[in-house]
Amino acid sequence: MSRMVNCVKLGKEAEGLERITYPGDLGKRIFENVSKEAWAGWVQHQTMLINEYRLSPIDPEHRKFLEKEMDKFFFSDEVSAKPDDYTRDQ
Q1: Which residue in 50, 80, 87, 89 has its CB near the most CB atoms, within 10 A?
Q2: Ordered alpha helix ranges (H), 34-81
Q3: 31: domain range?
Q4: Of 74, 20, 28, 70, which is closest to residue 50 (Cα–Cα)?
Q5: Which long-range contacts (CB under 8 A, 24 or more apart) does 36-41 make?
Q6: Would 38 be classed as within a structural domain?
Q7: How does DSSP classify residue 15?
Q8: What is the structure's pLDDT at 11?
Q9: Residue 84 belongs to some domain of the structure
Q10: pLDDT value at position 77?
Q11: pLDDT truncated to tens, each residue of the chain (90 aa)?
Q12: 4 near 13, Cβ under 8 Å?
């Protein structure tokens, strides 16, 4: 049977992640509170951020930015960043 979580992003009970997908305390919070469906939404959003802002995941400053955006995406009422000229709806 799949592990179920009360997903903070979707606001409902849904299938949880199979493993911790991010290191540290943020990764633990995500594992305990985020569904597979919501995680897939983050991966899509993160891809847009990397492409539109031309980020490099190996750059420590870019990783900090992405981690901050990930925290906002899941756990804040604050909207995660999108470039001013970004027009595609997700």
Answers
A1: 80
A2: 36-52, 60-75
A3: 4-75
A4: 70
A5: 37/7, 37/10, 38/7, 38/8, 38/9, 38/10, 38/14, 38/74, 41/9, 41/73, 41/90
A6: yes
A7: E
A8: 96
A9: no
A10: 86
A11: 689 999 999 999 999 999 999 999 999 999 999 999 999 999 999 999 999 999 998 999 999 999 999 999 999 988 776 777 766 654
A12: yes
From the centroid of its chain, how far is CA 60? 18
C-alpha dihedral over 9, 30, 36, 8, to 10 degrees? -20
The pLDDT assigned to 90 comes to 47
Tokens of 68: 């901050």
Q: Which tokens go with 8?
A: 């903070």
pTM: 0.86
Would you say residue 8 lies in a domain? yes
If one counts the domains in the chain, the total is 1
Residue 40: inside a domain: yes
